[in-house]
Structure formats: C-alpha cells, structure tokens
Amino acid sequence: MAERPEPILEVRDLVKHFPLTSGVVIKRQVGAVKAVDGVSFDLYPGETLGIVGESGCGKSTVAKLLMNLERPTAGTIRYKGEDISRLSGRALKAVRRNIQMVFQDPYTSLNPRMTVGDIIGEPFDIHPEVAPKGDRKAKVRELLDVVGLNPEYINRYPHQFSGGQRQRIGIARGLALRPEIIVADEPVSALDVSVQAQVVNLMEKLQDEFGLSYMFIAHDLSIVRHISDRVGVMYLGKMAEIGTDEQIYEHPTHPYTQALLSAVPVPDPEAREGRERIVLEGDVPSPANPPSGCRFRTRCWKAEDRCATETPLLAIPARATGGAAHESACHFAQEREPLTAAG
Ligand SMILES: Nc1ncnc2c1ncn2[C@@H]1O[C@H](COP(=O)(O)OP(=O)(O)O)[C@@H](O)[C@H]1O
Ligand code: SF4
Ligand SMILES: [Mg+2]
Fold first, then answer.
1. What is the atom index within ligand 1 of the atom nearest the CA of 61?
2. Domain ranges of the chain
3. Which residue among 88, 116, 140, 256 is least packed, with the fewest CB closer than 10 Å?
4. Ligand 2 binding site (Cβ under 6 Å of any ligand atom)
5. CA 338: distance to chain centroid?
6. pLDDT digits (tens, 9 = 90+) for 254-307
7. Cβ(182)–Cβ(214) under 8 Å?
8. Which segments within the chain are labelled E, that is strand?
9. The CATH number of 9-20+31-98+179-341 is which of 3.30.70.100, 3.30.450.20, 3.10.180.10, 3.40.50.300?
C-alpha cells in the first residue's frame, strides 16, 4: 500500500455535552445530552470521508464542532497539526477560510432577500483579501459557471431557482474562499432523488478540480458509498466502525453496521437472496442517558454481560484478516457468518 500523506484534519476524543437545566429563576444543571462522546478520526488530503448513522447520533454536532460553530466539551481538532478547536478572533478567522460548510436545506440556508450574486460573494466581505471590491462580480460569475449555473443569473433571487440549483448556489458560496476542506451536512437529503446524483457528481468534479477534502454526512448509505473513499458509522455519539468503503460495505464487523446495511435495498436479486435482513429491536436510547458499556447493547443480538460493563474501544479486532481488518468498536467484532450457518 502506498504511504499515506499526513492527515489534514485529526480529530481526537471529541466530546460535546449540551447541559440540561431545570428551574426558572435559578437554573441548575440536571444532566447533559451527550451528543458527541469521544469521537476520533482523520481526514486525508483529497479524500472523501463519509459519515453515516441514524438521525440524532451526533453527525451535525461533529460538523458544527469542525466548523467552530460549537465549542467542544473536550478533545482536540487539529488542522495541519494545530489544535483549532479553541481558537478565537483573528486566528479563528484565518482557519475558517480553509474549512467551509455546505448545508442540508437549500430552501432555508439561502437568504431570500439577497441576490445570488450577494449570497455567493458574501464571504468576500469577511475576507476581502480573496477578492478586492472591483473583482467581486467577475469572481461570482466565475463561481456560477464552475457549479454549472448561467453567470447571467447573478441578479436573480433564490426563489427563482429549483432545489438542485439552490444547492449549486450553496456549493458556489462554499467554494468562494477556495477552501481546502468542505464539510457537507446532508447536502442532498432534501433534494429529489433524480437531482441528488447531479449534485453529487458536481461535488466529485469540483473535488478533482480544486483538490478538496470532503467530509460528507448523510443517512443514505448508498449515496455515501458512491462518493466516499472511507466511511465512518456513528451510533449514539460514538464511532462504531470506520474503514474504506469496501471494508464497511463488504466486510462490516460491527453489529450495528451489519444491521444498517441489511436494510439497504440491493438491486441484484442473487445478492439479495444470500443476505438475511436484521431487524433491530427497540428505539435508539436517549443521548441524555446512554446505556453503560457499549451503547449499542440494548439493541444488539450479540450482547453479553461484558458489553454492559466494558466500553468497547475503536480498534482493529485482534483476529481480523483481509477486508475485515479495520477499526470497529465491538468486543466481538466479526464478519457475519455465511447464511447457511445462521440459526
Ligand atoms: N444545541 C443543542 N442543545 C441540546 N441538544 C442538542 C443540541 N444540538 C443537538 N442536540 C442533541 O444532540 C443529539 C445529536 O444531534 P445531531 O448532532 O443534530 O444529530 P444528527 O445530525 O446525527 O441527526 C440529538 O439528541 C440532539 O437532540
Ligand atoms: S460490544 Fe457487545 S453489545 Fe456492543 S456491538 Fe459488540 S457485541 Fe454488541
Ligand atoms: Mg444532522
């Protein structure tokens, strides 16, 4: 295997607890929503890291922490070796230029009273060094062209565009400052299926053109597989499993990943026959009161006593070989048995 370059982002033991308070006059903290509770991963230059997991597992909170829109309770986020999670003022502004976000909902994330020219050019107000005043219009027209929109539309308003076109505007805005990293939080989840592929293809084209690193968050496993080089699976504020797309989709070793994948429709009838659907019992527990030990144990068919007392660490399972040799947070991480052996 070729030697990997240094990561552009290194996230270590990231924690975000939101306090739960009670009382009207004198507020007391009565607990905490453990939205993100010890998450570690790397992002490499030019790659796409997909993050999947059910609603509420902490994906958007991770994104906000990376963007410095939230402060971590604990842990570090290193960008090119420097911890950026507690920066402020000028230092924060300088780093922010390199990490930009594309949001889920193209209908609410664009200000309806601003023209697309003003929306796309707004980041230049904060970073005038990227585009001096006289150059802005030309830069915005160029950005419209880059995302496949007619530069003549520069004076139109968001409501004059379709959902897919609006997401292109959101992407153009994200690109304005020529960032190195784009954190895309469910960028196509609100779009029609027919439009999703166009936006994903555009993002792939732009990645090559500008050498971008993507963190691509979604709950749709098929889309994530299509765009990602590596994939991380989150459950209740923790990373359950992380590996290449092939490792996660063909050789998952964490029961949660196996259950998620068993619910994805498979177009090939033969592949479908060879696979048993795993139906998870019960609901996702509250992040204010997560289960002890392994967070997945209340829904896991493999759970044993040890799972309630010992928190499994994200690590390569001792006996794993081949495609299954990637990090998984399960005491009994293992590829699924062939179906003939299933009881
Ligand atoms: N500002 C906040 N205050 C309190 N709880 C929050 C806040 N933001 C998110 N949460 C909670 O944290 C958990 C994770 O949320 P989120 O990161 O949005 O998940 P996802 O994006 O995976 O759906 C949820 O239980 C959510 O209700
Ligand atoms: S550690 Fe135990 S409960 Fe958790 S996923 Fe593995 S077997 Fe299931
Ligand atoms: Mg979210």
1. 17
2. 9-20+31-98+179-341
3. 88
4. 255, 294, 296-297, 300, 302-303, 307, 312, 330-332
5. 31
6. 999 999 998 877 666 666 555 678 888 888 999 999 999 999 999 999 999 999
7. yes
8. 9-22, 28-43, 48-52, 74-79, 82-83, 99-102, 181-185, 213-217, 230-235, 238-244, 327-328
9. 3.40.50.300
